Amino acid sequence: MASVNKQQREAAARLKRYEARQQLNATQNKRRVRDNVIAVVGVVAVAALAGFAQFFYFESGPGAPTPTPTETAVAGENVGAPDADLSEDRVWTGEFTFNDTTTVGIQLDGTLAPQAVAGFVNDFGTGYYPGKVCHRLAADLSFLQCGSIDGTGSPDPGFSYGPIENAPADDLYPAGSIAMARGADPYSNGHQFFIVLSDTTLDGSTGGYTIVGTVTSGLDALATLVAGGVDPATVGQDGSGFPLQPVTITGFTIE
Q: Which domain holds residue 157?
């Protein structure tokens, strides 16, 4: 009888060990499935973020595609922008410094582009520009675009204004022009601007771009800074992209 009881106990122990192994395997399988799901979600999230970044990168500025209007879009209104009177209806002088090494003298004309100049005066007061990168260089090196809120070309949802001011009637932007980048809406001007490095003609069919001022010195030095061209890893459909030599605004003054 004792032998039978011993065999029963051993059988019961084997059954428990078997059931424990089965439960462990089931738990490990569930964990693997969970880890795989997390990995797939992570890959999808990274791809989505990359897609959004690329979308915003080519959202505004010269040559940007015209987006399809949506029912929720608000056009023709200023958002968070100062009154044009802040420009004081006068010419402002100042400097941009890039990479701590290249200084560009500028004039901003508050008589010809009062709303855009008011935007620059506002951004000077808030210390907006230092630290912002120049994210877009034309394929032919004709212009350099700077001032994006996140460094990838995204617009600032809390700061936009219009109308288009002082756009050239012949669509020719002379070298040294400082103009405002925008999307399809004439009231989508914001922080982003582009400096024209060589005479260039831009499509004016949607109203052109506000020329807010001119470079008074240092244009050749800025052209030299970006002479390496566009980073091949960032080239978009129109050939523009990040400068191969990264460019950051390290100083901005006006008076």
A: 84-254
Enclosing H/E stretch for 40: helix 2-57
The answer to whether the CB of 58 falls within 8 A of the CB of 150 is: no
**Does residue 36 belong to any structural domain of this protein?**
no
For residue 213, the domain's CATH number is 2.40.100.10
The answer to the question of residue 198 being in a domain is: yes
pTM here is 0.76
Token pair for 190: 């914001």
109 SS3 class: strand
- Is residue 7 in a domain? no
Which residue type sits at 128?
Answer: Y
Point out which residues pair with 172 in neighbouring strands.
Answer: 201
Alpha-carbon span 252 to 132, nearest angstrom: 11
- Per-residue model confidence as pLDDT tens digits over 153-189: 999 999 999 999 999 999 999 999 999 999 999 999 9
DSSP state letters, 89-102: TSEEEEEEEETTTE
How far is CA 14 from each of CA 8, 9, 11, 19, 61, rounded to the nearest angstrom? 10, 9, 5, 9, 73
Tokens of 127: 């210390």
Q: What does the block give as tokens for 26?
A: 């089931």
CB 59 within 8 A of CB 80: no
Task: Please give the Cα distance from 182 to 198 (Å, whole number).
Answer: 20
Is position 17 within any domain? no
